[in-house]
Amino acid sequence: MANIIAVVCASYGLAQSVCDGEDLAERFFRSDHTNNWAVLVCTSRFWFNYRHVANTLSVYRSVKRLGIPDSHIVLMLADDMACNHRNPKPATVFSHKNMELNVYGDDVEVDYRGYEVTVENFLRVLTGRLPPSTPRSKRLLSDDHSNILIYLTGHGGNGFLKFQDSEEISNVELADAFEQMWQKRRYNELLFIIDTCQGASMYERFYSPNLMALASSQVGEDSLSHQPDLAIGVHLMDRYTFYLLEFLEDIHPASQANMNDLFKVCPKSQCVSTPGHRTDLFQRDPGSVLITDFFGSVRKVEITMETINLTVPGIPLERFGGEPHTETALAYVDQLPVAQIIHQKPKQKDWHPPDGFILGLWTLILLVFFRTYGIKHLKHIF
Amino acid sequence: MTARHPRTPAPLLVIGQRFLTQLLIGQRPRRTGSLWPSFHSRWPRWKWVSFLFILPRRRRSPRPQSGMKVRPVLSDPEKQRGRSAAVAIAALVIAAGIPLWWKTTETYRAWLPAARISELEALQLELRVEVEVVFARGTLSPEQQKKVPASRMREQTYESCCKSKSLCLVEADHALHTLTETSCGSVVIYIIPEASALLPQDMRVYVGRSRTALLRSQVASVVGAGLPEVLAALDPQMEQVLQTMSFNHQDVTAALTDRLRPGLSTRDSLADSMRAFKSSPGYEITFSLLNPDPKHHQLHWDVEAALDAYIYPLLHKMAPVANFSVDSQILYYAVLGVNPRYDASASAYTLSADSLAHVINPVEARLGSNAASSNPVLNFLLYVPDSLHSPLIIRNDQKQEVASNAFHSPRWGGIMVYNVDGAYGNDTQFPVDIAIDMSRVMGVFLSQLRLMLGFQQTGAPPGFVLEAAGREGVAEWELDRLLWSRSVENVATASASITSLAQLLDQIANIVINDNIAQQVASAVTALQAAVAELEAGNLALALEHSREAISASERAFFDPSLLHLLYFPDDQKFAIYIPLFLPMCVPILLSLLKIFREVQQHRAEKRAKRD
C-alpha cells in the first residue's frame, strides 16, 4: 500500500518538474558528485628530488586550470624547490626541458610545507582527525557527494612509500585510512594516482568500494625520470607524470574524455615501466567516467523556477533613497614623502668607538713598527 | 716476557710486537697503513714466523693434571642448590616477569559499552505521528456520533467557526489554528461535509500554514453505515494527507540513503538528497553583491534590513535544527567566467543553461570563507551586469526566459542576475546611484535557501492545495517534515558512527582509548536510545534535540585526534624487536629446566629399576 503511494507520489513529482527538462535530470545523474576535492602530496626532500615537486605542481596546475578552487585542494610539498639556494632560476619550478613550462606560477597555495608533510598529518587529513585549531585550508571537508583525487609521488618500494627520508607509510595503513573515510562517507568516488617505484603495490590492499587506482609501475619495476635539464642540473619530471601532464593539457572543462583514455597514458614504450590500474572496486564502468569528474569541477546547476512573492506591502523597508550619497573623496596616504627626503638635513651621527677591524689594523702597524725599529722607541710614543 | 692477560685483544698484541722488534732487531717496521702487517713488507716471510715464538699463547683452560677427570663433579648439595636456583629463576620469570611485561606494554583502553553498541546495529525505528481528526457538523449522522468513543469526542464549539461561509479559506485556517494547540510533529485534520462551500469544487484537501488540514469528506452519510466503515473509508485520504504533511516512505529512505543499498531511492529523492546539505551542527550563509562595473553603477543594497525582515524569521524557526551565522560582502570588479552572447531578437545578452555550470568556479576563488569553522557554507550571489552587457537574461534548455533570472547549484548556493539598465538613460552622469529592490532579491534567495536547507519542492497529489509559506518563510508542517527527516538522518548517522568506531577499536588492538572518548561514546549511546524512545512516543521536538546531542557526541568521539592508528607493526618487525631481548634470557632458563626435568626422569627410572 505504502509502495503504491510512494510510486504515485514519485510520478507526480516528475510531472511537476517537466519544465526543468528531463535532460537536466539526466545531467544530474550521470555522476553522483556535487563537489570535487584534490589531495596532492610530494613526499621527498632535497634538491635532487626536484622532479617530485615538479610532478605534484604540474598536477596541481592542471587541477586548478580545470576548475577546482584552492579551497578544495590540499597541497603538501615536503621541500621548497622554487626558493632553494641551488635553484639557478629562483621562484620557478620547470617541468619541460629548456624551461618551457613554469608550473610554479603566480598563485600556488601550499597547505602543508616542509616538515609538516608527515605520515601522521597525511593520515589526519584523510581521516579528518585534526586538532580543532586547524584552519579550514588544511582540512579535507568533503562529504558523501564529493569526488576526491589523491596523488602521491616520491620514493617507494614494495608496499611502502617513503616520507621525508625518515618514515614510511605502508599500503595497509593507506587501505585502512580509505576504509575509515568510507565508513564516515567522506567520499563518493576516489581516484588514487601514485607515481613511485613499484607503485602498484600501494593499491593492492584496498578493500573499500568506489576506489579507482592508477600507478606508474608494477611491483618489481622502477619508475624512471624523464629528462635532465643541464642548466638546472637535475631531472625535471618523472616519465609517467610528464605524459600525464601532456594528456591533461589537452583536457578543458567541457571535455568528454573518459578514464579509458587515462589508462592508456604512458605505455611501456614511453615509460619503460608498465603503468597499472585497478578498477574492480569501482562501481561505474570506467568508460563512462569523465576525466573532469575527478580532475575538474563541473558544477551541477539548476534553474530556480519557484520564487516567493515578498513584495506584498507589509513591513515597510527603509529603502535607500535616490539622493546622491555625498562622501568625501578618498585618497591614498602619502606613502613616500619625497619632499621631506630631498630637503632633509644630514642626521647627526653618534660617535662610536673604533670597531675590531680598525683596532686590528692599528695593532698590526704598531707591531710592525716596533719589531723593525726596536722596542726602545716605545717610551717616545707613550 | 711477562705473562700476558688472556683477554688482551689481538691488535694490541701486534702493536706491542712492533716495538719489540725494533728493540730486538734494531729496525722500525715500515708503516703499511693498517694494524696488521702487510705481506708486501720488506721482511721475508720466515721472519714473520719468528713472531709466533715471541707471541705468548693464550691458555684457555688450566693445564690438566694427570689422573683427574676433565669435567668437574659437583657434590649433591651443590647440585640441589643449582637446581632450586634454576627453578626459582624460572618461577620468577614466569610468575612475575611475564605479567609485568604484559601490563607495561598494554595500551590504555577505557571501557566502552559494547553490548549497547551492538544493540544499535539492529536498530528499528518507529515513527509515530499524533493525528487529531475533527469531524465538523454534518459529516456524521447522529447514530455515528453517538458511537464515537469518549476519548475521541470533540467539543461542539468548534463547529460554529467552520460553518460561517463568509470567512475565506486562509482566515478559516488561521481561526482553526488558534483553537488548537498543536505540538511539534502532530497533525490536525478537519473533516468538513461534502456540501461545504469552504473549499472550491475541485479541491479536496487544503493544507494550511500551520499544522492543520481541511479534508472534504467524500463519504456519503449513508444511513445505517457504522462509524468503523466511515473511518475505514476516510483512511486512504487521511493517509495521503499525512504523507504529504509528515513523512512518507521516500523521505525516510532519502534520509537513510547512506546506510541503504543504492537503487532503493527514486531519482527525485536522490536529487533532493544531493541538493540539500547533510545534517550539520551549523551552517554559514554568505550574501555577496558582485559589482563588475563600479565606474558606471554605484549600488546600494540595504542587506541588513532585508535579512532582518525576510531571512532571519526563517532562521529563527530553524534554530532547533542548526546554528546559522550570516554575513554579507560586496565584491568589486568580479566578473562571471563566461561571455554572454548577444541575442538581437530579445535585444539582450543571454546566458544559456549549459554555460551556467562554468560560472561558479572562477567566482568561488574570490568569495572567501570563515577560516575558523568547518561548517558548510552557502553562498548567495547577486550579480549586477556591467553596462556593456546589460540586460543579461538566463535562458533555460528550451530557450525560454527564466522569470526569476536565477540559478542554484546543489550544496553550494545560488546566483541571481539583477538588471539595472532600466534605471537610467544614456545621458546620465556616471556613476549612477542605484538602489536594489531587496524584496525581489530576497524572494529568490529565500526560495533557494529553502531548497538548500532541505524543504523539498513537494509535488502535491491531485486535489491538494498547499498554502504557500509567504513571508514567514516556512510553514509549520514543512518544518515538521524537515524535523522528521533530520531526526531520522541524525539517528542513522550517529548509530553508524558509533558502530563503526566500535568495530575499528576492536580490530586495532593497540589504539589508546582515552576516558573522554569513552564518555562521549556513552553519552552518544544514551542520547540515541532517548531519541528512538521519543520518536516512538511521537515527541518530535525532544527527539530532534536528543538526536542532535547524539550526533554531536558521536562525531566528536569518532574524529578525536588521539584515535590515529599509526601503530601498524607487521609480524616480522614484532619478532625482530622481541627476539634479541627475550631469547638470550629464556634459552638458558629453558635449557636448565629441561636438564632438571631429564635428571628427575632419570632418577625416577633408576628408582624404579632399583625397586624391581
TrEMBL record, chain A:
Active-site residue list: H155, C197
Which GO BP terms, alphabetically? attachment of GPI anchor to protein; GPI anchor biosynthetic process; proteolysis
Signal sequence residues: none
Q: Which keywords annotate this record?
A: GPI-anchor biosynthesis, Membrane, Signal, Transmembrane, Transmembrane helix
Listed under subunit, the entry gives:
Heteropentamer. Part of the GPI-anchor transamidase complex, consisting of PIGK, PIGT, PIGS, PIGU and GAA1. Interacts with GPAA1. Interacts with PIGT; this interaction, via a disulfide link, stabilizes the expression of GAA1 and PIGK and links them to PIGS.
The pathway to which it is assigned is: Glycolipid biosynthesis; glycosylphosphatidylinositol-anchor biosynthesis
Q: Does the keyword Transmembrane helix apply?
A: yes
Q: Does the keyword Nucleotide-binding apply?
A: no
Look up and give the organism this protein is from.
Denticeps clupeoides
Q: Per the record, GO CC terms?
A: GPI-anchor transamidase complex
**Cited InterPro entries:** GPI_transamidase, Peptidase_C13
Please list every transmembrane segment annotated in the UniProt record, as residue ranges.
356-374
The source's superkingdom equals: Eukaryota
Family note: Belongs to the peptidase C13 family.
Please identify the protein, giving its name as recorded. Answer: GPI-anchor transamidase
What are the top taxonomic ranks of the organism? Answer: Eukaryota, Metazoa, Chordata, Craniata, Vertebrata
One protein family per Pfam: Peptidase_C13
TrEMBL record, chain B:
Name the predominant localization: endoplasmic reticulum
Output the superkingdom of the source species. Answer: Eukaryota
Q: How does it sit in the membrane?
A: Multi-pass membrane protein
Q: Which GO terms describe its cellular component?
A: GPI-anchor transamidase complex
Specify whether Transmembrane helix is a keyword of the entry.
yes
Membrane-spanning ranges: 85-102, 575-597
Give the UniProt keywords, A-Z.
Endoplasmic reticulum, Glycoprotein, GPI-anchor biosynthesis, Membrane, Transmembrane, Transmembrane helix
- Localization (cell): Endoplasmic reticulum membrane
One of its GO biological process terms is: attachment of GPI anchor to protein
Q: Which pathway does the database say it acts in?
A: Glycolipid biosynthesis; glycosylphosphatidylinositol-anchor biosynthesis
The family this protein is said to belong to: Belongs to the PIGS family.
What protein name applies here? GPI transamidase component PIG-S
Organism encoding this protein: Denticeps clupeoides
